[in-house]
C-alpha cells in the first residue's frame, strides 16, 4: 500500500513539474521581475520586519554594499532569470553566444560543446581568442578583466566605429562571462592567440590561478570549461553529502534543450558548424550545419504540414536597410489554423517579439491586401482582410542583425529598437509584393485560404451573436447554482477562483471582493480527460459542465465522440479575464490542479494562449508573536525561510496554535528560551484552516498576492507529455518515472 502511495505521489509530482517548469512558463502578476527575484525581495522584507517584531533593531549597520560579483551571487535571478532549469542553461548559452559573436564577426567557423558526467561543460571555438594584453583601465589582463568585472568587454565600442571588433553581437551589457564566473564552482579559460596558449583558473568569482603561458601554438581560439555552483546556487535536486559526487549534477543539463538552441543557431548561421558531444552518453556526437539557412529552418518547422502551394512553398527575404540586416522565411500551411512566427535579433531568440515583429505583421497585412486588390480579388467596397485572417496558418522566421540592439533585460526576450520595425516593414513589403506579382498561383492559393478563414470566423461570430441575443436570459439562468458570481461585467477586470470543496469555498467567499471576484467550488476530483472514452458524453459530468459553463464555454450535449468540433467555445471572449486555480498545497490539491490544467488544455487551449489561466499561491506558514497584535504576523511560502528550525518531538504531525504554544515542538538552538515562548508558527494544511482576512491578504488581494501565470510554449510537446503522464498507458508512464527518477527529489512529496 505504501509503495502504491509513493508511486501515485511521484506521478503527481512529475506532472506538476512538467506543467509548472518544463512546458509552462510562470510569471508573477504583481511584479515585473522574475519569480525568484520576487520571492527573494519578499523574504528580505519579511526578515527585516520579523526582526523588529522579535526585539531586534534595524539601523545603518544593517545596510550592506555588495562589491563586484558578490551582487551576482546574492541575487543571481537578476542576471540569469532564475536558479532553476532556465538559469542553468542560460549560463551555457551566454558562453556559446560569445562564440557566435565571433562567427558574426567573420572569425569563427566551428564551435564544439562537450557535456561531462560531473555536470561541467566545455565550449571551444576557433575564433580570434579573447585578448590577453594588459587593460589600461584595470592594470589587469583583458581576459581577467572580462571574467571578473561586470560591464566590461569589447562590445561597448560603437558598432559604426571602423575599429569596432564586433559589428553585430548578442552580448551588449558586458556581464556574460563575469556572471558565469560568479556562479560557477570552477571556470578554466584557455586562449590561443599570438602564437601562444594562455590559461587562467577561477572559482566563484575569484582568480585562483593567475594568467600564464601554457605552451606555444599555431592556431587561435578560446576554450572555456566551467561547472556551475550546484552546491550553493543551483541547489534544486542536488545533494552534496560529505563532498561526495552528486548524481543529479550529471543530468542537470538537458540535452533536448541544448539541441533545440544549437539547431536554431545552425539555421541562423548557415556557414557555421556546431558539434555537441555528450560524454554522459558514451560520447554521443551530434553535428549541426545548415546549407540554406532560414529555408532549411522553415522546411524543418513545416515538415508535417501541407503548404498551400507546393511550387512556391518558400518565400525568402534577405535585405539590408539602414545598416540593419533583415532575413526572413515565410510559408503558409493549408492544414494549420494557428500563427507560427519565430523571431531573432542578433541570434537571440526574442520570445516576446518586439519592434521587428510589429513591423513584420504590419507589412504582411498591408502587402497581402494590396496584392489582392491589384489582382482583382477585392472590390472597392469590400472590407480588407484583418491581420488575424491573413496570418492563420503562417509559418515564419524573422531574423534581424543590427548595431546597438536594445533588449529588455539581460535575458533579452524582446527587441525595442524602433528602427528595426521600419527596416523589417520595408524589406518585407518590397519582397512580398514582388513575389505575389510574379507568382499569381501562389497569391490565388493564399486568397482562397484567407477568404475561407474569414468566412468561417464570420459564421462563428454570427452564430454566437444569434445565440447571445436569443438566449441571453437563458444563459444567465443556466449558470451553475454553486457559482458565487461577481457584480462587474467588464471581462478583463474580473476573476474566477476555482476552489476545492465547500470548506475552502466558504472562506474564499468571505475573503473575496465580490465586485470583481467570483468563486466556483468543485466537489472532489474532476474527470481525467485523458482517460475519457469516445462513448462518454462530456457534458453529462456535472462538475465539468459547471466549470465550462461558468467560464463561458458551451458543449454540444448530443454528441458522444470527442472531436475538435465537439466543444463550441467562447475562448476569445470568456466571462472572466482570469481563471485562477486555488487548491491546497498538498498532493491532492496538486493533483486537482493538474486535472484542471489538462481539461483546459484539451477543451479550450486558447485560454493559455491568451494568458488567462493562473495558479494561486497560498502560504504554507504563519509566523506570529503570541504577545503581539495581528500586525506582528507574517506569512511564508517555503519552509527554508522559517526564522527558526522546527524539530518535532514525536511522530505525530501537529500544526495548530494550541499545540505549538503547549511546547510540542522544539524551536531549535538558533533562538533563546525566552524567545521560544513568544513565537507561534502555524502550518496551513489546507485553505479551510485560513481565516478569511488571511486568505484575502495573502492569496486574493491583487496588491499583495502571488499568481503563477500558466502558458504553453510548445503545444505538441505538452500534448504528448500530458497523454504520457495522464493517459491509459501505465507501463509507458512507469518507464518514464523510473528513467527520470534520478532527477526527482522524494523530499518534495507531501506524504
From TrEMBL:
SUPFAM superfamilies: ATPase domain of HSP90 chaperone/DNA topoisomerase II/histidine kinase, Ribosomal protein S5 domain 2-like, Type II DNA topoisomerase. Control of topological states of DNA by transient breakage and subsequent rejoining of DNA strands. Topoisomerase II makes double-strand breaks. Belongs to the type II topoisomerase family. Belongs to the type II topoisomerase GyrB family. The keyword Signal does not apply. Keywords: ATP-binding, DNA-binding, Isomerase, Magnesium, Metal-binding, Nucleotide-binding, Topoisomerase. Homodimer. GO terms for molecular function: ATP binding; DNA binding; DNA topoisomerase type II (double strand cut, ATP-hydrolyzing) activity; metal ion binding. It comes from Babesia microti (strain RI). Its EC number is 5.6.2.2. PROSITE patterns: TOPRIM (PS50880). Pfam families: DNA_gyraseB, DNA_gyraseB_C, HATPase_c, Toprim. It comes from the Eukaryota. Its cofactor is Mg(2+). Residues 494-619 form the Toprim domain. This is DNA topoisomerase 2. One of its GO terms (biological process) is DNA topological change. It catalyses: ATP-dependent breakage, passage and rejoining of double-stranded DNA.
Amino acid at each position: 500500500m505504501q509503495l502504491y502511495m509513493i508511486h501515485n505521489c511521484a506521478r503527481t509530482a512529475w506532472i506538476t513539474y512538467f506543467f509548472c517548469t518544463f512546458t509552462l512558463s510562470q510569471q508573477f502578476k504583481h511584479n515585473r521581475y522574475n519569480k525568484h527575484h520576487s520571492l527573494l525581495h519578499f523574504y528580505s522584507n519579511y526578515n527585516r520586519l520579523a526582526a523588529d517584531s522579535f526585539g531586534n533593531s534595524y539601523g545603518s549597520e544593517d545596510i550592506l554594499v555588495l562589491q563586484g560579483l558578490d551582487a551576482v551571487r546574492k541575487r543571481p535571478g537578476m542576471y540569469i532569470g532564475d536558479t532553476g532549469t532556465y538559469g542553468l542553461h542560460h549560463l551555457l548559452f551566454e558562453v556559446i553566444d560569445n562564440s557566435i559573436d565571433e562567427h558574426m564577426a567573420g572569425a569563427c567557423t566551428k564551435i564544439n560543446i562537450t557535456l561531462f558526467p560531473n555536470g561541467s561543460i566545455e565550449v571551444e571555438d576557433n575564433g580570434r581568442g579573447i585578448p590577453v594584453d594588459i587593460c589600461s583601465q584595470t592594470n589587469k589582463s583583458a581576459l581577467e578583466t572580462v571574467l571578473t568585472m561586470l560591464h566590461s568587454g569589447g562590445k561597448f565600442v560603437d558598432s559604426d566605429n571602423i575599429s569596432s571588433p564586433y559589428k553585430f553581437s548578442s552580448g551588449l551589457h558586458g556581464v556574460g562571462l563575469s556572471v558565469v564566473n560568479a556562479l560557477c564552482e570552477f571556470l578554466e579559460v584557455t586562449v590561443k592567440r599570438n602564437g601562444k596558449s594562455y590559461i587562467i583558473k577561477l572559482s566563484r568569482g575569484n582568480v585562483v590561478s593567475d594568467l600564464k603561458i601554457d605552451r606555444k601554438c599555431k592556431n587561435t581560439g578560446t576554450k572555456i570549461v566551467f561547472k556551475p555552483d550546484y552546491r550553493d546556487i543551483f541547489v534544486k535536486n542536488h545533494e552534496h553529502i560529505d563532498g561526495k559526487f552528486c548524481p543529479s549534477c550529471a543530468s542537470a543539463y538537458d540535452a533536448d534543450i541544448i539541441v533545440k538552441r544549437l539547431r536554431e543557431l545552425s539555421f541562423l548561421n548557415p556557414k557555421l558548424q556546431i558539434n555537441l558531444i555528450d560524454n554522459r552518453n558514451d560520447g554521443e556526437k551530434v553535428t549541426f550545419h545548415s546549407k540554406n539557412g532560414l529555408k532549411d529552418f522553415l522546411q524543418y518547422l513545416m515538415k508535417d504540414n501541407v503548404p498551400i502551394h507546393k511550387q512556391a512553398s518558400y518565400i525568402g527575404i534577405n535585405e539590408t536597410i539602414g545598416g540593419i540586416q533583415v532575413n526572413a522565411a515565410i510559408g503558409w500551411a493549408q492544414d494549420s489554423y494557428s500563427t507560427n512566427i519565430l523571431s531573432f535579433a542578433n541570434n537571440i531568440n526574442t520570445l516576446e517579439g518586439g519592434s521587428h515583429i510589429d513591423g513584420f505583421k504590419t507589412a504582411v497585412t498591408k502587402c497581402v491586401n494590396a496584392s489582392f486588390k491589384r489582382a482583382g480579388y477585392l472590390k472597392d467596397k469590400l472590407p480588407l482582410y484583418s491581420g488575424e485572417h491573413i496570418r492563420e496558418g503562417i509559418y515564419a522566421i524573422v531574423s534581424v542583425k543590427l548595431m546597438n540592439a536594445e533588449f529588455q533585460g539581460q535575458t533579452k526576450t524582446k527587441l525595442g529598437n524602433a528602427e528595426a520595425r521600419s527596416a523589417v516593414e520595408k524589406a518585407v513589403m518590397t519582397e512580398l509584393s514582388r513575389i505575389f506579382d510574379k507568382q499569381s498561383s501562389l497569391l490565388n492559393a493564399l486568397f482562397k485560404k484567407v477568404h475561407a478563414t474569414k468566412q468561417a470566423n464570420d459564421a462563428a461570430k454570427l452564430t454566437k451573436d444569434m445565440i447571445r441575443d436569443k438566449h441571453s436570459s437563458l444563459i444567465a439562468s443556466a449558470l451553475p447554482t454553486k457559482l458565487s458570481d461577481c457584480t462587474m461585467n467588464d471581462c478583463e477586470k474580473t476573476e474566477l477562483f476555482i476552489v476545492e470543496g465547500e470548506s475552502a469555498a466558504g472562506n474564499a467567499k468571505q475573503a473575496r471582493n465580490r465586485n470583481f471576484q467570483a468563486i466556483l467550488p468543485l466537489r472532489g476530483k474532476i474527470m481525467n480527460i485523458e482517460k475519457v472514452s469516445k462513448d462518454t458524453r462530456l457534458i453529462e459530468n456535472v462538475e465539468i459542465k459547471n466549470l465550462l459553463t461558468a467560464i463561458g464555454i458551451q458543449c454540444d450535449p448530443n454528441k458522444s465522440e470527442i472531436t475538435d468540433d465537439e466543444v463550441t467555445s467562447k475562448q476569445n471572449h470568456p466571462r472572466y479575464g482570469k481563471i485562477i486555480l486555488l487548491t491546497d498545497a498538498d498532493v491532492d490539491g496538486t493533483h486537482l490542479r493538474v486535472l484542471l490544467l489538462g481539461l483546459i488544455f484539451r477543451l479550450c487551449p486558447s485560454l493559455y494562449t491568451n494568458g488567462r489561466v493562473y495558479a494561486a499561491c497560498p502560504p504554507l506558514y504563519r509566523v506570529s508573536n503570541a504577545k503581539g497584535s495581528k500586525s506582528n504576523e507574517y506569512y511564508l511560502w517555503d519552509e527554508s525561510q522559517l526564522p527558526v528550525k522546527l524539530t518535532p518531538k514525536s511522530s505525530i504531525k501537529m500544526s495548530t496554535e494550541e499545540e505549538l504554544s503547549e511546547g510540542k515542538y522544539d524551536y531549535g538552538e538558533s533562538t533563546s528560551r525566552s524567545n521560544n515562548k513568544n513565537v507561534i508558527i502555524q502550518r496551513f494544511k489546507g485553505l479551510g484552516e485560513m481565516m478569511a482576512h488571511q486568505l484575502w491578504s495573502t492569496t486574493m488581494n491583487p496588491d499583495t498576492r502571488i499568481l503563477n501565470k500558466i502558458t504553453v510554449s510548445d503545444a505538441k510537446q505538452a500534448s504528448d507529455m500530458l497523454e504520457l503522464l495522464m493517459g491509459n498507458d501505465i507501463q509507458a508512464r512507469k518507464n518514464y518515472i523510473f528513467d527520470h527518477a534520478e532527477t526527482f527529489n522524494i523530499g518534495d512529496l507531501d506524504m
